[in-house]
Design a protein that fits this description.
The chain is an alpha/beta fold. The protein folds into 3 domains: 129 residues, HUPs (Rossmann fold), CATH 3.40.50.620; 107 residues, Serine Threonine Protein Phosphatase 5, Tetratricopeptide repeat (Alpha Horseshoe); 176 residues, Orthogonal Bundle (DNA Cyclobutane Dipyrimidine Photolyase, subunit A, domain 3), CATH 1.10.579.10. The chain is built from 21 helices and 5 strands. The protein has a 5-stranded parallel sheet, with helices on both faces.
């Protein structure tokens, strides 16, 4: 072919990009295009920090393409209108893109492909985001897995594709209409004042450096350190995988020697497969009976949780890390999610939305899967999990280093006091310079009381579901 388009979406890299590599192999000239999707940008759970990460990634790839005899064309609008229109104007013979799995993305890609084909333009879709496609990991009778362990056994046994070479040349500039990468404020996104963009360096080059640093310094100890939030023991690759600054194949290739980390990659794939096979989980609990759980509508408690002002230090530290970095340590994500759903009895969907609004790595499938896991409403059902935040704090942040970093009101407290500061005597509070109720919040709920409330509510829906079987 003479001229084709590569439609960038969540694959913002030049190395090991399946659709881009195929486009360059098939055509003399590749026009790289990105469409700022009005539908996505108008969603209430799309936050400024994630838009910032996207735009900075686009700026880097724009520079890389310019250095490789090409020009990134940035469109704005509805992809089902803008991509076919631009393809016709450019006289492109085909549009190459990588597969997406979210319900909206599936509808969008079907609409784009249909309009392209009506115009006589090929729509070429490739597997790129996952190591194994949802259709390839099924039970013996052809059903999708809803429990992780058997899924993992099937998934790990499949061959994994090696990374592809980097595209070095786009075959010439195309003088097309379409602007460069805009600023986020151009379409109404302003970074929150508490977000620190210096916590991240977006883009393909930074993603490679982060992967190399993880493999070189942290991966060997991952199984021992991954649950310690005060230690830089996790990969922090999730934002780069979200936007495709690095491919899952590149990550897998360099981490196959670390089984525990590979299992975390499998969890990511598991949740993408769940979303593909059961797209209704985007808006409701996977377990039908759990859709009847009783939740409390308490905006004050929800707001205290969002701000990191619950009086539970490990919870507050995690929520403040989220506000500042747009990211949270995975162990702490589980703690704060359990606290919201089991101690505050707030619907998990409120937490899911807040995470998506604030996370730079906000990704529907793993975020939804993680929240439904924490709330006990999703796949891989087990007995109800209710984390004791005080015990979790002592176990995973024993000396309080993580808490001190993110809750400076407690910085002067010794390790034996920092996890439950509300138990200090009045004399201890004065001595350590932290008056509970003034300098730091008193616990907004009693965990022991709320744990029983949660157990009663979960038992009620379970018994109601069992009763319905005999009606």
């Amino acid at each position: 072919m003479k001229r084709v388009i590569h439609w960038f979406r969540r694959d913002l890299r030049l190395a090991d990009n399946a659709a881009l590599y195929a486009a360059r192999s098939a055509a003399a000239q590749v026009i790289p295009v990105f469409c700022l999707d009005d539908h996505i940008l108008s969603r209430p759970d799309v936050g400024a920090s994630r838009v910032w990460f996207l735009l900075e990634s686009l700026r880097e790839i724009e520079r890389k393409i310019a250095a490789r005899n090409g020009r990134l064309v940035v469109l704005r609008g509805k992809p089902e209108e803008e991509i076919p229109r631009f393809a016709r104007e450019a006289k492109a013979e085909a549009v190459f893109f990588n597969r997406d799995y979210e319900p909206y993305a599936r509808r969008r890609d079907e609409a784009v492909s249909s309009r392209l084909e009506k115009s006589g333009i090929q729509a070429r879709c490739f597997s790129d985001l996952l190591l194994a496609e949802p259709e390839s990991v099924l039970t013996a009778d052809g059903r999708p897995y809803s429990v992780f362990t058997p899924f993992f056994r099937a998934w790990i046994s499949l061959p994994k594709q090696e990374p592809l070479p980097e595209v070095q040349d786009f075959g010439g500039l195309f003088p097309a209409a379409g602007g460069g990468v805009p600023d986020s404020c151009d379409f109404g996104f302003t970074l929150p004042p508490d977000f620190d963009p210096s916590a991240w360096k977006p883009g393909e080059d930074a993603a490679r450096r982060r992967l190399d640093a993880f493999v070189g310094t942290c991966a060997a100890a991952y199984d021992r350190q991954r649950d310690l939030p005060a230690v830089d023991g996790t990969s922090r690759l999730s934002p780069y995988l979200k936007f495709g600054n690095i491919s899952i194949r590149q990550v897998y290739q360099k981490t196959t020697a670390f089984p525990k980390f590979v299992s975390e990659l499998a969890w990511r794939e598991f949740y993408f497969h769940v979303l593909w096979h059961w797209p209704e989980v985007e808006n409701s609990a996977w377990q039908p009976q759990k859709r009847h759980l009783q939740w409390d509508d308490d905006p004050e408690r929800l707001e205290a949780w969002k701000k990191g002002m619950t009086g539970y230090p490990i919870v507050d530290a995690g929520m403040r890390q989220l506000l500042t970095e747009g990211w949270m340590h995975n162990r702490v994500r589980m703690i704060v999610a359990s606290f919201l759903t089991k101690d505050l009895h707030v619907n998990w969907q409120e937490g899911e939305r807040h995470f998506m609004l604030r996370l730079v790595d906000g990704d529907l499938a793993p975020n939804n899967g993680g929240w439904q896991w924490a709330a006990g409403t999703g796949v891989d059902p087990r007995p109800i999990r209710i984390f004791n935040p005080w015990l979790q704090s002592r176990r995973y942040d024993p000396d309080g280093s993580y808490i001190r970093r993110w809750v400076p009101e407690l910085a002067s407290l010794p390790p034996e006091k920092i996890h439950e500061p509300h138990l200090m005597t009045a004399d201890e509070q004065r001595r350590f310079g932290c008056i509970i109720g003034r300098d730091y919040a008193a616990p907004i709920v009693d965990h022991h009381v709320e744990r029983q409330v949660a157990m009663d509510r979960y038992r009620a829906v379970r018994e109601a579901a069992q009763g319905s079987l005999f009606q």
